From TrEMBL:
Pathway: Isoprenoid biosynthesis; isopentenyl diphosphate biosynthesis via DXP pathway; isopentenyl diphosphate from 1-deoxy-D-xylulose 5-phosphate: step 2/6. One of its GO terms (biological process) is isopentenyl diphosphate biosynthetic process, methylerythritol 4-phosphate pathway. InterPro entries: IspD, IspD/TarI, IspD/TarI_cytidylyltransf_bact, ISPD_synthase_CS, Nucleotide-diphossugar_trans. It comes from Calorimonas adulescens. It is an enzyme of class 2 (transferase). Keywords: Isoprene biosynthesis, Nucleotidyltransferase, Transferase. Pfam families: IspD (PF01128). The record marks 15, 22 as: Transition state stabilizer. This is 2-C-methyl-D-erythritol 4-phosphate cytidylyltransferase. Its EC number is 2.7.7.60. The lineage of its organism: Bacteria, Bacillati, Bacillota, Clostridia, Thermoanaerobacterales. Gene3D superfamilies: Spore Coat Polysaccharide Biosynthesis Protein SpsA, Chain A (3.90.550.10). GO terms for molecular function: 2-C-methyl-D-erythritol 4-phosphate cytidylyltransferase activity. Catalyzes the formation of 4-diphosphocytidyl-2-C-methyl-D-erythritol from CTP and 2-C-methyl-D-erythritol 4-phosphate (MEP). Belongs to the IspD/TarI cytidylyltransferase family. IspD subfamily.
Length: 226
């Protein structure tokens, strides 16, 4: 059984306001991308890693991060697309063969080996899975002029994170169908749902934050120091 990780680091990072990809920001002396790579490298269930980065990052990431820190499982570094979905597809296209594919955002540095093991195990069982956490806040659906339309039951609402894991053929089929139909989603689970497949959610961790804004960096540094 072969498990391949696709690690995404090709976003525009506009909300971070740095002028360069946020996964290259140094946190505690190391680039943000290093944290996810380290855990994927250490996890015995991951056989290879495909890195997806911006075109102008390929050489830098290869020399400074992959070779510089001695990551041996990185088999390919490929160019990302204009949307997250297209970056995942580019990563998938670089995978010659895998039983399960694990997709993870490089901007979520506090991934754990247990999360990876959990999603891989469930992907083999049911085909598609993601980590997530129950929402703590009440959610309102709003309409024009920010007027509340209704309040959904919070008990059934979860915030979905990565890693997400899929049987390779399921994820590949979902992406190909999305391209055919011109459908764009914000995560891979939505693409899989679109082709009629079920997705099981595994409870993750509230500390598994996605670094999007400068405020998130402050939170991350505090979490790392715990």
């Amino acid at each position: 059984m072969k498990n391949t990780a696709i690690l995404l680091a090709a976003g525009k990072s506009l909300r971070m306001g740095t002028g360069f990809n946020k996964t290259l920001i140094e946190v505690d002396g190391r680039p943000l991308l290093w944290y996810s790579l380290r855990i994927l490298e250490q996890c015995e269930l991951i056989d290879e890693i495909v890195l997806v980065v911006q075109r102008d990052m390929v050489g830098y990431v290869d020399d400074y991060i992959v070779k510089g820190y001695g990551f041996k499982k990185v088999s390919r570094i490929v160019e990302g697309g204009s949307e997250r979905q297209f970056s995942v597809f580019n990563g998938l296209s670089a995978v010659e063969y895998a039983d399960v594919v694990v997709v993870h955002d490089g901007a979520r540095p506090l991934i754990t080996e247990q999360m990876i093991r959990d999603v891989i195990e469930v992907a083999y069982e049911v085909g598609a899975t993601a980590v997530g956490v129950p929402l703590k806040d009440t959610v309102k659906v709003i309409g024009e002029n920010n007027m509340v339309k209704y309040t959904p039951d919070r008990r059934s609402l979860w915030a979905i994170q990565t890693p997400q894991a899929f049987r390779f053929e399921i994820l590949k089929d979902a992406h190909e169908k999305a391209i055919e139909e011109g459908y764009v989603a914000t995560d891979d689970c939505a693409l899989v749902e679109k082709i009629g497949k079920s997705v099981k959610i595994v409870e993750g961790d509230y500390k598994n934050i996605k670094v999007t804004t400068p405020e998130d960096l402050v939170i991350l540094e505090a979490l790392i120091s715990i």
